[in-house]
Every structure is written in structure tokens, then in C-alpha cells.
Amino acid sequence: MYLKYNSQIHHRRSIRLSGYDYSQPGYYFITICTKNRENLFGEIKRNKMVLSAFGHLVKRHWQQIPRVRRNVALDAFIIMPNHIHGIIVIKQYHVGAIHELPRQRELPLYQRAKRRQMLLFKIIGQFKMNSVKQINLYRNSPKTSVWQRNYYEHIIRNERALNRIREYIRNNPTNWQNDRNHIKSTV
């Protein structure tokens, strides 16, 4: 059964910083969780993440992001049993390097600029879409959700914060038992 959006029941609010241009150069800390926090990507053994076949697929798709988008680089990342943490770096745009479809060129300049502000969302959307296709192909389950609908993002504003987040990513397997994404077994 499909439920229509009802503002009295559904109170989704955006976690995005209003008016912020998410295509501008900078470092962005991202967390993407599996649907229902399902452990699909492997397990923690002796404080180390051991990737499953799905974990390896996700890793490969994550590492392909800079190959698809030349103005994007990756920093520290970790794939956990039911989520991924990573730092995405958006590098400076070169005006000549922005390729738009002919129909996009017909849009007013302010609308084209607004679409470019969506770069981070497009990166995550493309990553999620491509990894889901591969996982569902692998397990022969078309149209099955793998990821949560949204994701968490944090704009990294200085080097101290960057180093703190890198440390958090590096230590994530060690802290798995206390991680808020760790669903403890009730058995």
C-alpha cells in the first residue's frame, strides 16, 4: 500500500544547510547506512573490518567516484557492516570543464547554478544507485532496497576537524560495539 505525503504525519526536515552551495570546493564527511541497519558488508573480527562480497562491491564503487567526477577526490573512508563513512573532497571547478546537456544550456543561468549546487547529492545518489544495481544483480533480487533513503553529511570547516574525523573513521572498527549504527543481537 502506498501512503501519500501528509504534513500532519510526516515530519521530514532537511538536514542540509539552507542556502549552502554543496558543489563548492571543500571537504565533506558522509555517512550512508543500509536500510534497517542490515549487516550486508561484512563483520568486525578482532577490531578489523572483514568485507563480504557486497562490502567489496561497495568499496569498488566508492573508489570509482573520482574516476567519474574529475573534480572530486576521496580522503579517509571505512566500510562497516551496515554503513560507510567517508570524506569526499570537491576540488575547484574549472569553468570549461563543466559539461551540460544541450537542454540544460537552455535553462536560465540561476537554474543551472542551482543544479550545480547539488553536486554532493548527485555524487551520493550515483554511488548508491550503482552499488545497489550490482548488489541486487549479485543476489538476484531486483528492485530491493539496500540503502536508507537519505544520508548524513557534515561540512568539514578546518584542519583540526578534518583530523578528528579521519581519526574517527580509522577507529570505527575498534569502537563498533559502542557505535550507534551497531544493532546488537537479541539472541
- Shape descriptor: globular
Q: Name the CATH superfamily classification.
A: Transposase IS200-like
Number of strands: 6
Q: Estimate the strand proportion.
A: 15-25%
- N/C terminus separation: 32 Å
- Which residue ranges are poorly predicted, with pLDDT under 50 across at least 5 consecutive positions? 95-99, 110-116
Helix tally? 6
Average residue pLDDT: 82
Describe this structure in words.
It is a single chain. The chain has one domain: 2-Layer Sandwich (Alpha-Beta Plaits), CATH 3.30.70. It contains six helices and six strands. It has helices at residues 53-63, 65-68, 102-105, 109-116, 119-138, 159-171; strands at residues 26-33, 42-45, 48-51, 72-79, 83-90, 152-156. The strands form two sheets. Strands 4-5-1-6 form a four-stranded antiparallel beta sheet, with helices on both faces. Strands 2-3 form a two-stranded antiparallel ribbon. The chain is globular, with a radius of gyration of 18 Å.
Provide key terms for this protein.
187 residues, alpha+beta, Alpha-Beta Plaits, two-stranded antiparallel sheet, 32% helix, 20% strand
Topology, element by element:
Layout: E1 26-33, E2 42-45, E3 48-51, H1 53-63, H2 65-68, E4 72-79, E5 83-90, H3 102-105, H4 109-116, H5 119-138, E6 152-156, H6 159-171
Antiparallel strand pairs: 1-5, 1-6, 2-3, 4-5
Helix pairs in contact: 1-5
Q: What's the short story on this structure?
A:
The chain has 187 residues and is an alpha+beta fold. β4 and β5 form a beta hairpin. The protein has helices spanning 53-63, 65-68, 102-105, 109-116, 119-138, 159-171, and strands spanning 26-33, 42-45, 48-51, 72-79, 83-90, 152-156.
